[in-house]
Amino acid sequence: MCGIAGIVRWDRATVFEHEIRSMCGAMVHRGPDEEGVYLGDGVALGMRRLSIIDLDNGQQPICNEDASVWIVFNGEIYNYRELRAQLERNGHTFRTASDTETIVHLYEDVGARVVDYLRGMFAFAIWDTRTRRLLLARDRLGIKPLFFSERDDELVFASELKPILQLSTVERSVSWEAASHLFTFLATPSSQSIVDGIRKLEPGRIATAVGNCGLRIERYWDVDFVPDEATTEDAIVERLRELLVESVTLHRISDVPIGAFLSGGIDSSAVVATMARVAPDPVKTFSIGFAEAGYDELAHAREVAAAFGTDHYDLVLRPDVIQIVEDLTWYLDEPFGDTSAIPTYMVSKLAAEHVKVVLSGDGGDELFAGYEKYVVESRERRFDKIPAWLRRAGGAVGDAMRDGMRGRRFLQHLALDGPARYLDASTMFTRDQMRRLFHDDAFDEMSRHDPWRASLAAFAPTGGGEWLAAVQHHDLQTYLPLDILTKVDRMTMAHSIEARPPLLDHKLVEFAATIPAHMRLRGGTTKYLLKRAMRGILPDAIIDRPKHGFAVPLARWFRGDLSEFARDLLLSDTCRQRGFFNTKYIETLFRQHDRGRDLDLQLWTILSFELWCRRFLDAPRASARRSHPVTTLIAETA
C-alpha cells in the first residue's frame, strides 16, 4: 500500500526533484515508511510506501531488468505468486519478492492488458521509456483512488487530490459540476474532483498517453448480472462459501500484523468468521460504539468476537467531533456528506495501534442486496400502476407546497418513474433547494450540470431487464466507489493502515451477479442467500437482526456542542464574503433542525464544503505533513 504521484512533461522540460517530493510530502500518511523517486527525461515518479509485503526489498519505484519500464503502485495483488512463477518460466528475472515487480514484467509480456491478469486492488502508473508511453490503471471496483490533470504539455497524477495541489501551475477553483453532484448525492462524481481541471480515473479503466495527444481512457471490466437459474440453491450456497474462504485466504497475504473491522453486521461478521477458520492465531477485531442509545452496536460485535474467540478491541465514541473535524477535512481531500466517516476515522485509529492491515465487510450490501432501499423500491414499484397523469398531478401539487410542508416530498416522489424514483430517494438537496442555498452566480454554474443524467446512465439494462439487478449495478458503479470505498480508503490511510475488502474480490463479485434475484431479495428479507450461507456458521441472532448501518447521532450533536461551531463557520463573514452560500437559507435550515426536523446530513455537507474551501481554496498552498521517512532516491536513467 502506498501513495503514488507523477509528472510527465511531453516537451521533455525538466521535472525538478523538489516538485515530485512536494507531491509525496502531502501524503506521508499513505506511506510513512519511506519515500522513493525516479527522475527521467521530462518525467518524475514518486511514492510513499506503507510496507506490507517484502518489507526489506520492496522499495518503489521498481523497474524491469534493463530499467526501461518503471512503475509506482498502490494496492495489493493477491495472485502475484502465481503470476511470478509463470513470468519466471517465461525468462524474467526478479530482484524483489514484492507484488509490484510482478506487474512490471507482466506489462513487458502483455502491455496494457496487464490489468486482465491482476486479482486485487490497485492504482498504478507505468512509464515506458522506450516509447515514452504512460499507462494509468485503476482496479475493477474502485477500491484504490487515482486523480489526474492534463494541461498544455503536462500530465500529473496522484493517489489524492492534495499532492496535485502542491504544484504552483495548478489553479484552484471549484468544479461546479462536482459541487452539484456533491449536494445531490453526498459525494463528488466518479470522473471529476471538486477542483476544476482535476479528474478521477474511474473504476475498471485504463488510461494511456503517448506524447501530447491526451489520455485515451478505456473500460476493461464491468459486472454483468446474468442469473443462473439452472443451478440449485444448495449448490449456489456451497459455491459462495468456497469463494468466501478463497477470497479471505488471499486477502490475508501479508508480512505484517492483520486484523478486521467488526460491526456486528452480517458482512463483517462473515469475514471474521472465515478469518477465524483459516487463520492459525486468534483474529484481532476492532469495533466502535456510541454512548447514545439506538446507535450502539457493540453488544452485537462482542457476541461475534466471543463466538469466534477473537482478540477484540472496542471503544465507546464520545467524540468532541470539533476536535477531529480539521483532520477529516485534510484526509478526506474533498467535501464529503457521509457522516459515517467519523466513526470510520476513529475505528481506524484504534486498529492502527495494533495492526497495519484490516479486512472489512464492504461491498456485501451492493452484492447481495442488503440495503433497505431495495425493499422500499420493491414496495414503491406498485406506484407505477397508478396512471401517470394522476401521479404527475400529485407532483404538481407537491411543487406548489412550501418547502418543509408535510407530504410535499412524498407527492413529488410519487410523480417519478422507476430509476428516477430510486435516485430521488437518495437525493439530499433538490434543484429547488439548491437554488435557495446558493447565490445566483454559483447556482447558475451548478445548473449547467445534471448529476442525475450520469447516474441514470448507470442503470444500463442488465440481468435481462430485472429491476433489482439494475439498481444493484447502479450502486456498484456509483454509491460503492464514490462513498463507501472513498470513506474507507481515506480514513484508514489517515492512520497509515491498509483496508482490504474480500467481498469485493472480482471473482466473488462476478459470481454474486449470477445469483437469481429471488435468492438475493426474498420478500422483505435482504441478503437472503448470504444469510443462508452463514446459517450454522454465525449466531442466528446476528443473521436475523435488523440491519442497522454505521449510523451516527449527528442530529443530536447538531443540537448540542456542534451547533455553535457550525453556526460560527457557516454564518461567518468569511463564508458570506466568499459569495457561494445564501446564509439566510442556512439560518432557516438550522431553525428547522432545532425544531425537530432532522437536517443533519444537509448541515454536515454544507459544513464540509465550507471547511474544504477554507483549507484548500482560501488558504495558501496546503503545507505538507511530513514525518521522518527513510529516503530512497533512484537516479535518472539514460
User: In the CATH classification, which architecture of the largest domain applies?
Assistant: 4-Layer Sandwich
The coarse silhouette is: globular
Rg? 24 Å
Helix content: 40-55%
End-to-end span in angstroms?
A: 29 Å
How many strands, which pairing sense, and closed or not: the largest β-sheet? 7 strands, mixed
* Largest sheet: spatial strand order: 10-8-9-1-3-2-18
Description:
This protein is of the alpha/beta class. The chain has four domains: 2-188 and 195-221, Glutamine Phosphoribosylpyrophosphate, subunit 1, domain 1, CATH 3.60.20; 233-370 and 473-544, Rossmann fold, CATH 3.40.50.620; 372-464, no CATH class; 554-618, no CATH class. It has 29 helices and 18 strands. The protein has a seven-stranded mixed β-sheet with strand order 10-8-9-1-3-2-18. Strands 4-5-6-7-11-12 form a six-stranded antiparallel β-sheet, with helices on one face. Helix 8 links the parallel strand 14 and strand 15. Helix 6 (233-251) packs antiparallel against helix 21, helix 10 packs parallel to helix 20 (479-493) and helix 19 (467-477) packs parallel to helix 20. The two termini are 29 Å apart. Mean pLDDT is 91; it is low at 622-638.
